[in-house]
Amino acid sequence: MGAYGNGRQHVQIFNKNDSCCFSGNGYETYEFVIDDNISQLGKDNFQIFIDDTHNEHKISNHVLKLVYEEISLDN
After folding, report:
1. What residue segments make up the domains of the chain, in order of their start?
2. Comparing C-alpha atoms, which of 58, 49, 53 is closest to residue 27?
3. pTM, whole model, 2 decimals?
4. Which one, 39, 49, 56, 63, has the greatest CB density within 10 A?
5. Phi–psi pair at 16, nearest 5 degrees
6. What angle do CA 32, 35, 37 make, to 5 degrees?
7. What is the pLDDT along the chain (75 residues), one digit of tens a residue?
């Protein structure tokens, strides 16, 4: 529901090669279900972003930069 409505978006970020948790492509089991359902409601913006810039369990500088740029665009 975080992706539904005017000016709203939901982005899930996964570390492709996370050394701890949620690595790989498990998101593929549900991404299309969420996309289909939220698209039927309209006013949607749901995305999954795969960060393949490192092999650690962390928020990378690459993702921090993308988030900062997105927030700056909204202001």
Report:
1. 10-74
2. 49
3. 0.79
4. 63
5. -55, -40
6. 105
7. 677 778 788 889 999 999 898 888 888 888 888 888 888 887 778 889 999 999 999 999 999 999 999 888 765
